Amino acid sequence: MMLPQHHQTSIEPFKQYLQRIWKPKSLDFRLAFNQMLELCYSPSRVFRLAKARNAIKGHYARDDPSFFLIESLMVLVVSLCYSLSFHSTLSLTKYLKLISYMYIVDFLLIGLFVTTGVWYLSNHYLSNNINSSGSSNSSISSSHSINSSSSNASLEQMLERLEGNTMNMEWLYCFDVHCNSFFPLFLIIYVLNYFLLPIHVLLSHGWIGVLLGNTSVALGLTAYLYVTLRGLIDVPFVVPSKIVNYLFLYPVIAIWFILWIGSCFVFRVNLLHLFVNLYFV
């Protein structure tokens, strides 16, 4: 019996992903825009396509980088808008430096770190392979007692079951999940607060401004975690309860009960202002 395609050519989706960046005619930008809209009201619909992709092509990750390219362009445009708002007389080099900080650090570097962390946790701590290793070994040992008349069919079923239990989380799919999760965070923390800049400036020295800024940061981070949850919870080779607890519930508790309460009521620190001052002031 042949193994599924994703066991044989695990590097192929990544190579195809990179190659299609340089082939604009092969990119489906309309689908990417539709998925961005769906992420705002029904993230589960976006990840249903990943299930269908796995059933057809043998991998969950996108092989079309359109979503990543559009999101990258949006981040660059918004970072340029922030740069123009705070520094209208800077040189082109300074503008490029400020833009690259927001794009490279916030979106790419932190994204790559989170992607790798989620990928590692999913394969080593959140996977049902850990729980099923003992049962898989017992299934193999018991298979020797199968009657000769039904041995071929039983062996076929056993191999299919074992293959389903030993699949691994794809790094590229985790990066897809990051890109999807970053979009609502981007809309809340970056885009919405850009239009609220006059209000933030007006309330910059008051507690209401601290509450407004920190609440938007907490909401953006919570949206990021929720979309991440929707992207991973239905993958068959992870344990749903572990995904809910370790990648959503515990981080959300930390965000609201430690970060939000601490910054709003204990230290009175405006996290949004810290972010703006770090990059643009």
Instruction: Give the biggest sheet.
Output: none
Distance between the termini: 62 Å
Succession of helices and strands? HHHHHHHHHHHHH
Structural class: mainly alpha
Distinctive features:
disordered N terminus, 281 residues, globular, 13 helices, mainly alpha
Helix/strand layout:
Blueprint: H1 5-8, H2 12-21, H3 29-41, H4 43-57, H5 66-86, H6 92-124, H7 129-142, H8 151-165, H9 171-195, H10 197-202, H11 207-232, H12 240-266, H13 271-280
Helix pairs in contact: 3-4, 5-6, 5-9, 6-9, 9-11, 11-12
Provide a quick synopsis of the model.
Helix content is 78%, strand content 0%. The chain is mostly helical.
Can you characterise this structure?
With 281 residues, this protein is mostly helical. It has a domain of 189 residues. The protein is built from 13 helices and no strands. Helix 11 runs antiparallel to helix 12. The longest helix is centred in the middle third of the chain and has 33 residues. The chain is globular. The N terminus is likely disordered.
